[in-house]
Every structure is written in structure tokens, then in C-alpha cells.
Design goal:
Elements lengths: L6 E4 L13 H14 L4 E3 L11 H15 L5 E5 L4 H14 L3 E4 L9 H13 L5 E5 L1 H4 L5 H7 L5 E6 L5 H10 L4 E4 L5 H6 L4 E4 L6 H12 L3 H15 L7 H12 L15 H16 L11
Parallel strand pairs: 1-8, 2-3, 3-4, 4-5, 5-6, 6-7, 7-8
Helix pairs in contact: 1-2, 1-9, 3-4, 4-6, 9-10, 11-12
Length: 304
């Protein structure tokens, strides 16, 4: 399957039962909702997927089950965020063997690598697999920025094809486009800058609140690409209080609460994460409740 690196790609949450096992029934319900809404791919094992809390067996189960659920309708992309280059290569090769369609790779974890070390890390992984790769550029959370000069070196490898752009500097979209044209596909990675990124020429959106509101997310993308900006902006303004729940250390708990409201998820998280409590829980629920009361009617965006 050709991976085009465009459209909306949800970083899906991992569902758990009340006794802390994988909840594949609810997970499938959410994946089907994403597909029905018109997403362009599924990204497994990111921060929203609580990957750091999953065993290697659980990760493999999720990959196998997701590939089966999706059935080739859209690409399935596996996130790599490992402690060592060797481990990252092993995950990449296993993902390819299982039938994944692409990789999203974070920089080295728990070590602030130099620019040279970061480039070598990405290159070594890319050389170990034929899968197409998206580099996750998020210096705010991971303290390492992948600069344009670093991408100049990385793009020597044909399977490094895209960037999840999460620097929070919206002008980076234009810088990447000016330097690399279509050689490097750009997917906005910050929910609260999504419309701005798409307007500046980003090819897609790796989204978080899409896990609870897939149709609204894809509608914004489709409307922007169709030039129907007023309609896109109206939905985006309604969406913004929800999108702000994604830029929080408790983004997983926030988004899972929203999934409960829309009927495609549960609140269960895996420790050390715990469900929201007290005033913060009331605040987040109030935002979700208001959004549900004012949820917009969407145009026929799938046929744009």
C-alpha cells in the first residue's frame, strides 16, 4: 500500500478494560469511527497510545489487530520511541515483518542527543527497513529540534519522506516548503495550530482530538483543502476549547473523557496515569459538555 502522507491521521488511544487488559472491542469501535469519518491513516503507539506502559506483547497484539481491523483501507503507521538505536531498529523491523505500512520516529529518548547523533540515529533506523518514515519534530516536549540542515542530510535516504511538525513555529511550514518542496511532506502535529498549518500548505494533520471527534477533524481538513475557509474556520472556532485539551500533560485523560462523551471510548488509563480528579475533572467535563451542546452540523465534506 502506498503511503501518501496526507489527510488526517489520528494518533489513536489504546483502550483498556476495567481490569487493565487491552480492550480490543472498544478499540475496534473507535477505529471504525475513524475510518467512517474519512481519515487517511492510523498511527499506533504514540503518547496518546500510552505506548510507554505497554508490554512488547501488547504492542504486537495491537499492530496485528489493527491491521486486521483496517483491512487495507488505510495505512497503519507504527510509532517508534525507544531508549537505544538497537531497540528502535528491532521495533522497525518487527513492524515491517508484521505488515505495517509506515513508521513515525521520535528522536532518542531520555538523552539530549547532539544534531550529529540525532541524524545518525534516524539514518540507522531508516537503513534497517524499507518502510516509509515520518520524523516527529517536537523540541517543546522532547528537547531536540530537527533543523532544516539536519533534514537536508536525512533526505538523502529515500524512505525518509515526511515530518510531523510540532515546533509550534507556524512559519516552519513555509521554510520546509521553500527548502524541500514536495520532497518532504508536512503534517501538522499541534491540534491548536492545525488550521493555520494547513492554510500555510501542510499536507496533513496528525491529530489528537480526532480520537473523540473524527468527523469534525476531517471536515476541517477537507474544507481547507477545498478553499472553503469560512466553513472551516467556523468549525475550528467551535473546536478550539477541545483542541486545547491536547496541549496538556494530561492529554490522554482529557481525550479519553471526550471519547466517553461521543460514545467511542472509555475513561480507563494505565497507571501511573490516573483518571482526572476534583476541580480539573470538572473543568474538562464542562468544556466537553459545552462542546456537545453546541456541536456543529457538518457539510457533506466527504464528497468535496
Amino acid at each position: 500500500m502506498t503511503l501518501k502522507w496526507e489527510g488526517v491521521m489520528p494518533a489513536v488511544t489504546t483502550k483498556f478494560t476495567d481490569d487493565d487488559q487491552l480492550d480490543l472491542v472498544t478499540f475496534k469501535k473507535n477505529v471504525e469511527a475513524q475510518l467512517a469519518a474519512g481519515v487517511s491513516g492510523i498511527i499506533l503507539g504514540g503518547t496518546l497510545g500510552e505506548a510507554s506502559t505497554l508490554t512488547s506483547e501488547e504492542k504486537e497484539t495491537l499492530v496485528r489487530e489493527t491491521l486486521d481491523m483496517v483491512g487495507g483501507r488505510v495505512p497503519v503507521v507504527i510509532n517508534i520511541a525507544e531508549q537505544t538505536t538497537r531497540e528502535a531498529i528491532e521495533v522497525a523491523q518487527k513492524a515491517e515483518k508484521l505488515g505495517a505500512n509506515g513508521l513515525m520516529i521520535l528522536p532518542p529518548m531520555r538523552y539530549k542527543a547532539t544534531d550529529y547523533e540525532t541524524v545518525v540515529y534516524f539514518k540507522e533506523i531508516a537503513k534497517s527497513t524499507a518502510l516509509p518514515i515520518m520524523i516527529y519534530n517536537n523540541p517543546v516536549d522532547y528537547k531536540i529540534e530537527v533543523t532544516l540542515d539536519m533534514f537536508e542530510e536525512l533526505l538523502e535516504l529515500d524512505n525518509i519522506q515526511a515530518v510531523k511538525e510540532s515546533t509550534r513555529d507556524i512559519t516552519n511550514v513555509t521554510r520546509f516548503k521553500n527548502r524541500f518542496g514536495d520532497r518532504l511532506k508536512i503534517l501538522g502535529g499541534v491540534d491548536t495550530l492545525a488550521l493555520e498549518s494547513l492554510s500555510a500548505g501542510a499536507d496533513g494533520w496528525v491529530a489528537g482530538l480526532v480520537d473523540a471527534y473524527p468527523a469534525e477533524t476531517v471536515a476541517i481538513y477537507k474544507l481547507v483543502k477545498a478553499g472553503r475557509m469560512e466553513e472551516a474556520i467556523a468549525i475550528y472556532r467551535w473546536f478550539m476549547p477541545l483542541l486545547e485539551l491536547d496541549i496538556s500533560p494530561q492529554l490522554v485523560q482529557n481525550i479519553k473523557l471526550a471519547e466517553v462523551a461521543t460514545g467511542i471510548g472509555t475513561e480507563n488509563v494505565r497507571a501511573p496515569r490516573l483518571p482526572l480528579q476534583g476541580e480539573e475533572r470538572k473543568r474538562v467535563l464542562a468544556i466537553i459538555d459545552e462542546a456537545m451542546k453546541t456541536r456543529p452540523e457538518l457539510p457533506d465534506y466527504l464528497n468535496l
